[in-house]
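Feature request, filed as a ticket because there's no other form

It would be nice if the structure record came with a short human-readable summary line next to the tokens. Right now we just get the raw output. Example of a typical job, pasted below so the devs can see what we mean:
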Amino acid sequence: MTDTFLIGLDYGSESARGVLIDTASGQQIGSHTHRYRHGIMTQQLPGGGALPRGWALQNAADYLEAAQHILSKLGSGRNIDSIGLGFTASSPLPTTLTGQPLSELYPDDPHAYVKLWKHAAAQKFADDINVRGGSYLDNFGGKVSGEWLLAKAVQIADEAPKLWSETARFIEAGDWLVWQLSGQERRSLGFAAYKAQYSESDGYPKGITDGLEQRLAPPHPVGSPAGDLTKAWRIETGIQGKATVAVAVIDSHVALPATGTVRTGSLVGALGTSAAYLFLSERFHALPRGIEGVAYNGSIRGLWCYESGQASFGDTLAWFVRNFPRAGSADESFKLYNFEAAMLAPGENRLVALDWWNGNRVPLADSRLSGVLMGLSMDTTSVGIYRALMESLCFGARSICDLFTAGDIAVERVLMTSGLAQNNPLLLQIMADVMNRPIDVPEIGNPTAVGAAIHGAFAAGVVSSYEEGAARFGAKSYRHYSPERRHVRVYETLFQLYREMSNSVRARAAMHTLSGMPTAENPA
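Raw output as currently delivered:
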């Protein structure tokens, strides 16, 4: 019998990663990572054109280059059963009718590029949408975020009407990559529901901006096959076999089956550049106040999934280490900061931080908000600040968990996954102490890419259910973190200070003022 394999692709903010899994044994036998050539463009375009403050773009060509490298490295000469794909969202781009990115035709126009999820310049358009309101907001707490597709579409139509007139398709980058690999435009219900407020009863929202509905396409539930890998990609990569390509899944959602979370009751946090917290349910509950949204068939087949998150997570710590390095490399600086931060007792730094370094996602959906560090004194050290930032991330996670329980959703188990969960034990112990809950971390490498592979396996019929996929290819064991009682009491006091800061209307108004302040280069 010929050996066959699964490939799972995980497209993050800075790079893409792939894993190769033996279909018969379920073992990972290879992985490969490729960084995007142009990275995250926040200051200038590839040709050198300057970008305004608050922009975050990517070049779609980088996604194809990453796919070529990863698929060739993992799949050349092998029989591939399926290819699954998780992609950071919302990151839409304008294309022609055939899928050509408009950035290839208009390289000097910033609106022609992928608008990455952290693109904050669309927030004012989200605010306008929210003021108008509509029934499509019912499952999203009455508001959309500037991170999502609708606001970004309105921004293009308002600021670049000529480019919008030439946009035949406005499509999430994950859906676009599936289109390139399979030759078929097959959009994902996950992207459409959570990031474009699509519903099966009403379709896409009406009246957002002229022609938006015509630039979108009907979506398909997660686990649906988009088509088989095209002949051109087979020649390019050396892949053999059926190689069924599944519709894309939001990157934080795609990890669920790899963690074994395919039923109700567990709150799963995907801790990466940003953080997402997901709760699966077999029945519909009214959306708890402050939680971002809920959709059916957009994360795991046959289940509702409630979504929430923090706009900055690992990003916040990376910002600090980048600006206040302790060693010649970022990795070494992280090690030093973590080692010394672990020596501090809870509360010893006398600091409380607000984790809004990239705006607030839950419960305010406002990218103009910003971080706060309270308690600075002549005794403050860089290590103390680093620990305060770690604690602030955990306070943000607890505030989200509290919103679920306040909304009568019973969180029976908390799991944390992705890079920071696996690689930063101090952070996970702080989180268990702050939440006063035990936390489980699945012991599995590359969980997001493995989750993508499970989605692909379901789409190709390799497994008949997500339960089977999780059992065959997902985590088999878990690392446990239990709260330390003596720390819980201290963190309860600090968390109440965090809540006071986050609830301050005057503080948020001041953040808006600072965000919109004119400069000498950009006068009002």
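Something like this underneath would help us a lot:
Residues 4-252 form a domain with the Nucleotidyltransferase; domain 5 fold (CATH 3.30.420.40).
The chain is about 35% helix and 20% strand.
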